[in-house]
Amino acid sequence: MSRVDAMDSLRTKPRILIVTPEVTYLPDGMGNAANYLKAKAGGLADVSAALISALFEQGADVHVAMPDYRRMFIHGSPGLYPGRELEAIRAKMPDDRIHLAEDRAFFYVDHVYANYSRDNLKIALAFQREVINNIVPRVRPDLIHCNDWMTGLVPAMTRMAGIPCLFTLHNIHTVTSTLAEIEDRGIDAAYFWHHLYYRRYVDEYEAARGAVPVDFVTSGVFAAHFVNTVSPTFLKEIVDGRHGFVDGHLQRELRNKYRAGCAVGILNAPDPSFRPESDTALVRPYGPKEALAAKQENKRHIQQALGLTVDDKAPLFFWPHRLDPIQKGCQLLSDILYRVVSTFWEDTLQIVFVANGAYQQVFRDIVARHNFQRRVALCDFNGTLERQAYAAADFMLMPSRFEPCGLPQMIAPIYGALPVAHDTGGIHDTIEHLDVDANTGNGFLFEVFDSQGLFWAIEQAMAFHRLPAKVRAAQVARIMRQSQETFTHTVTARRYIELYEKMLERPLIVE
After folding, report:
1. Which positions ≥6 away from 493 have C-beta within 8 Å?
2. Which tens digit of pLDDT belongs to each residue from 23-44?
3. Looking at residue 35, what is its pLDDT?
4. How many other C-beta atoms lie within 10 A of the C-beta of residue 3?
5. Which residues pair with 378 in a beta bridge?
């Protein structure tokens, strides 16, 4: 037995390697460079950061592999690690739990994902080459957790190496490449070619090498020992064929994993800084007991800032996510915006948008045509304004056509803003229609994806708003408390830890 093997045999804690193309933060104790590594394009970065932090804080032997986005890292911490000091930190990093893949493909990029698919493919292949050839042999993990299409080839390697692998789909975007191109980038795909997923049937390596595309996401699902999506209902919707936009290859492989008992949904959770008690962006921070009074104060502030009629009793609806008609359902609201504002004119209903997207101009035109400027405000996305709007709002609009997970419907009730949403995907898993008499529920759901369904849900929200303040205050306080307890990274991390332990057939945290 070699010295390395002997040391491995003495390990009591399983070693977990999380492979991710993006992350927002890492625990200081993980290494010298932890506090300047930040590369984010979406929710994957937050989930990766939360999971890694939770595992580390609980004493797990957790490691992370990610691309060395040198320009982003340095620019993200101006003046913090200049010149030689930065190089000195890099020299120490092999002893840490952070493993940066090195390649010029991502040294000088400004964003995690480029605007051109070929550039993204080049980055993905360079990243996976370094993970497969260098990082995995160095870390010698007991389990590997891969995330999204940029890691989709790694599970095939783990099959040959005998390492259990979890593959998480945060979204269903994919790319394709040939074995020849993959190998030209330095990955020995011939070693694991039969564990990859091809766009059409192949039965021998030479026939596949130059002509048959390899699908990255479907390869990850096909080869991984276990798969998870970021909500249970979205997984079931894909398996049941509810969404026509889901590629048939991916749907079939997910269905196979699901039927084999090797696929689950694990919900994401919001960034822990989304807490109204401690949110420094708010004019008046607040907890569940004083929510209604504090919301009125925060509402007056945002009304003054955005040019709305100042009325702290006005029912305020908030749109916090992008104005995307493909997923987010903004066309449903545009169809009925005049009807909504007119129907509830005497109630002084107001709507605030803090969102970018193609439909922003559509709403601007409607507002201008009907002189709704004192009732409807449209703003480009801004993180501070987003938080202030959650605190000011009574309700949050989320009529998504589909939702792999979603975070606004979790953040909103933490701030006491009740979601008005389409009953789909992650929304179904996190929002229950409010029943005041039964003292249950946390929002207002409509089932049929059309503008009439959305209008009905807004009517339900307005009926709640007309209830006595004492009744509303009790419900909002209950919802805030339950949301703060349920929608946390601790809960999410526990689910992943349970899955790791199931895959390893032993405890992850050894006392």
Report:
1. 50, 51, 54, 55, 58
2. 877 887 776 666 667 777 777 7
3. 65
4. 7
5. 353
For the packed helices 360-370 and 330-343, what is the interaxial angle rounded to 10 degrees?
20
Question: Are the beta carbons of 483 and 288 closer than 8 angstroms?
Answer: no
Indicate the residue type of 89: I
Q: b/e for 200-234, b at 16 or more Cβ within 10 A?
A: eebeeeeebbeebbbbbbbbbbbbbbbbbbbbbbb
Q: Which residues sit opposite 422 in a β-bridge?
A: 446
Give yes or no for residue 111 having a pLDDT over 80.
no
**Number of C-beta neighbours around residue 9 at 10 A:** 8
Give the tens place of pLDDT for each residue, 131-157: 999 999 999 999 999 999 999 999 999
Which residue has 């999380």 as its token pair?
A: 18
- The strand pair at 214-215 and 176-177 is best described as antiparallel
Q: Which amino acid is at 282?
A: L
Structure tokens at 100: 């940066």
Cβ distance 70 to 102 under 8 Å?
A: no
Q: In a 3-state reduction of DSSP, which class is residue 422? A: strand
- Could you tell me the CA-to-CA distances from 500 to 15, 216, 225, 509 in Å, in that order? 11, 23, 11, 11
Question: Could you tell me the pTM of the whole model?
Answer: 0.87
Distances (CA, A) of 93 to 32, 43, 69, 99, 181: 7, 26, 15, 7, 31
Query: Closest Cα partner for 243 from 171, 177, 146, 167?
Result: 171
Cα–Cα distances (Å) from 119 to 73, 174, 211, 351, in that order, read 19, 14, 21, 40
Instruction: Tell me the Ramachandran region of residue 196: left when phi exceeds 0, alpha when psi lies from -120 to 50, beta otherwise.
Output: beta
The C-alpha atoms of residue 390 and residue 418 are separated, in whole angstroms, by 10
String of DSSP letters for 479-492 = HHHHHHHHS-HHHH
Q: Which of 52-61, 137-146, 443-452 has the lowest mean pLDDT?
A: 52-61
- Reading the block at residue 91, the tokens are 């020299």
Taking the CA atoms of residue 174, residue 178, residue 182 and residue 183 in that order, the dihedral angle to the nearest 10 degrees is 160
**Residue whose C-alpha is closest to residue 496's, from 145, 149, 23, 98:** 145
Q: Which amino acid is at 112?
A: V
**How many whole angstroms from its chain centre is CA 180?**
33
Strands (E), 235-382: 263-265, 316-319, 350-354, 376-379
**Coil, strand or helix: which one is 3?**
helix
Return the closest-CA partner of residue 297 out of 385, 388, 392, 411. Answer: 392
Quote the CA–CA distance of 63 and 51 in Å, as a whole number: 11
Tokens of 263: 């696929």
Q: What does the pLDDT look like over 296-344, one tens digit per residue?
A: 999 999 999 999 999 999 999 999 988 999 999 999 999 999 999 999 9
Going by the DSSP 8-state scheme, the letter that residue 348 receives in this structure is T
